[in-house]
Amino acid sequence: MKKKSVRLLTSVVALGVLGAGYAGVRYYVKTEEKKESEAEEKEAEDISIFSAPAENLESVKFFVDEKEVTFDYDKEGDLWTRRDEAAFPVNQDKLSEAAGAVSSLNAERVLEDVENLAEYGLDSPQNTVTVDAGEENLTMRIGDYNEGVSQYYVACGDDDSTVYLVAGALVEPFFGDLYDYAQNEEFPAIDSSNINSVQVDMKENSYTLKYKEEDSLWEVSANESVEKADSAKASGVTSSVSALEYFDFVDYQCTDLEKYGLKEPYATITVDYKEEEETEKSEDETSDAENAEETSEETSSEEETEEAEPVMLDKQLVLYIGDQGEEETRYAALEGSDDIYTISEELLAPLLDETAESFWDLSLGYKALNQAEKVDISYGSENHTINVSRETSEDEDGKTKEEITYLLDGKELDDTTTLNTFWNKLTNMSAQKILTESYVPETESEMTTKVTSVDGAVVEADFYSYDTNFYAVVIEDRVYLVNKVGIKDMFQAYENLVAGGEE
């Protein structure tokens, strides 16, 4: 029994020694791995693939849209050009970014003694970039993307046994369509408050919105018909014009408009607007102005100079809209330009998806009660008149004040609550639509209102039951369809007014 205990104790001690030894080995291995990793990282920081002074760059060549394209750098003009097409509008920032990325190219890691380039996507590279920097040159093949480290596999020159891992930011400038390297124009900036008119010409649903400055109102016209426009809806259109912007640049110096549906445009948008004139002072004018300012400060510091009113110039923008493009866009071109862009259909919708009728002002044209002179109302078999009496006087301070009195059939209304309720329901009603077809009432008018304003304007309206949902409100030659619920509420308010006035 004693021997067994000794053996057991010996075994436990042995296991402890072995465990301690194993732990020590593990610690040693981890320490060495950490040292190696740190060494590799430090080494990686110093892995230079290619380096050339920026001023030595002469050209960069790579594949774009499966075609090899060369961009040359003009040192004197500090300008990149496309070798095979000098008129191509090169995006200078884009090319400078791409060239700068490879002019000092470092790797994050290097793999040596590579036997199979296919493992890294380098048997069929995504792109091949050639940099000419005078005496220094680089040919770089770009392989697969390693998502784990966000890096690309790269091989250089004729060396098929060495593969580098390069940061994505250094090679991604070479992934793009041709027009990613083109300098697109900005869509003209138009201040919505300076727009005078917007005309949309389509095969269907053409219309023109025009601002009448003398009345501070918008009008909408189509097919020789002119209507007062809803100001809020018109403002929505001008805001939409101001928000227009290009989506993509797709073609420059285009000679085939039919390709984009622009030979016979889907729509033409014409915008008349005003723009502040830009003035540039000459050196002499600037010097004179500075001297004048100094003299003024010395002689009369208290004098204030009035700012000159800006000179506003009349401008016009004509935008042609063509076929649908990719990503819910339409092709577009400005008059006078042969460059083709796309514009989001979402931005175009507020302009192209409307009709003249959708801009019509659906208010019935009543004014505030305090602007009325007299209101004649026929309802059922009864006729009543509301008169508005105004008396002016001066208070103790000599200020003029106006006292307004409302009379129903010649009797003063002590309490105007019912009158205000009726008037609010009458004047705040808005139509659902305006009938464009001829209308002949099948019944007698249930109510007729004739409002005479202090300025002499008269608005006479007849209320007819139209169908189960609407009343037809006829004002001159306009027929408004108004929800029946609102009309019934107005009738009830009028009955309450008359009942209160007769008591």
Summarize the structure.
With 503 residues, the chain is of the alpha+beta class.
Features:
nine-stranded antiparallel β-sheet, 503 residues, Immunoglobulin-like, alpha+beta, disordered N terminus, single chain
Structure, described:
- The chain is elongated.
- It has 3 domains: 48-181, no CATH class; 192-277 and 311-359, Immunoglobulin-like (Sandwich), CATH 2.60.40; 369-502, no CATH class.
- It has helices spanning 2-45, 92-103, 168-171, 231-243, 283-299, 345-352, 417-427, 484-502, and strands at 48-51, 59-64, 67-74, 79-82, 104-106, 109-111, 127-133, 136-146, 151-156, 163-167, 195-202, 207-212, 217-222, 225-228, 248-251, 267-276, 312-324, 329-334, 340-344, 372-379, 382-394, 400-408, 411-412, 433-434, 447-453, 458-465, 470-475, 478-483.
- It has 503 residues and is α+β, with helices and mostly antiparallel strands.
- Helix content is 25%, strand content 36%.
- The chain contains 8 helices and 28 strands.
- A 9-stranded antiparallel β-sheet has the order 14-13-12-11-16-17-18-19-15. Strands 23-22-21-20-25-26-27-28-24 form a 9-stranded antiparallel β-sheet, covered by helices on one side.
- The longest helix has 44 residues, at 2-45.
- Mean pLDDT is 85; it is low at 1-25, 34-44 and 299-305.
- The chain starts with a helix and ends with a helix.
- A hairpin with a 4-residue loop joins strand 17 (312-324) and strand 18 (329-334).
- The relative contact order is 0.07.
